[in-house]
Design goal:
The protein is an alpha/beta fold. 32% of the residues lie in helices and 21% in strands.
Amino acid sequence: MKTVFGLIALTLVALAAAPVDIAAQDLAIVNARILDGKGGVIERGSVVVRGGKIASVGSGTAPSGVQRIDAQGRTVMPGFIDAHRHIATGDPAEWLAKRAPAQMQEFLDAGFTTVLCAICPDQALELRQRVASGTVKGPRLLIGQIILLARPGPPAGRGDPARFDTSRPPMRPTQAAGAIPPAETIKTVESIASRKYDYLKTIITTTPGGPEVDTLKLIVAEGKKRNLPTITHAVSVIDTLAAVEGRPDVLVHTPHIGHLNDDAAAVKKIAGAGIPMTSTLQVFAPHFAPDNTPLFRDGEPFPWNTLSSAGDGPVNARLLWEAGISYGYGTDTTWPPKESLADELRALSLVFSPRDISKIMGQGAARSTLRQDIGTLEPGKVADLVLIDGNPLTNINDLLRVMLTIKDGRIVSDARTGNGRATK
């Protein structure tokens, strides 16, 4: 008999430890301040979830027969989305086998239910499948792969390319880059599509008389034939204007090299193109180590010669926002997600209000991933939600106080300690 009970106990322990794809829950978060991801606020309301989708959002009471979570006046908003992030570091196989599962849980604990990795190895595709199947618990992964616009020139320096960016004078190229034959570009698009990536990622630094814009147009066209959208990295005003000519689906990196405040025509052209843009402002503001050492995103000492971008980026972002651009949250870092969030909030807060930031993190970030089913709290949308212990409209850093993360209608991270626990 002891043996039987022992086997039962071991089985229960194994089941508890193994990742399980639990069915979506029917639940309601009540007595909540609701930030809908579009800039709207309901000071005291309820969000009802059924079958993994949002059933209702409003000031009315929740129906009976569903699991109830009393927010006790805390804040509910859409699950966080990082629309431009690096997740695989070091040896890809070792990352997948040893570090990825814990990293995925870190994202959930910080409130992130969707992460777009724009340059990822094939191992990230395997992680995406494991998350989707439930064998690894993590955020929804969207994966991109790089495709070149021209033959690369000699590197300007060693290490993180943002330290030695050839888009930044005086390192800008002075001669045309070598063209890549169209047939080669098309073959690369086909290869990326066959491996089931979600996006094509291009990097544009235009050269005098170079092929960059024409190649971008070809990539965009070939991607559309295969339902594969194109994300374009453009970090200077000059290159952002060129990228707009190529009509990619998303622009990443607010232009932070060059000034838009004295170029109204450029602001109008970039915003008027209707292409979503992803923030990534904090890369050029220092990340501070526990001992107060200012670091760059590569963990090395901060390069102060790039600091002007920490000012130009936010100013240009606000000008484009005023002109009507769709602007979404992204970090372009490998710091732990909560640390990256703290850094990006610091940069965004220079020019955006807390309510603006709630929209940037909701609807804006969803648009920067080209997903229409996430990012806002509306009936019919995917039930990705976070419960915040505080009011981000009065203190934006309350976004760092995530108590509960719900993805696809499932509770995937729960830091509650008694108050606000779910009740029937």
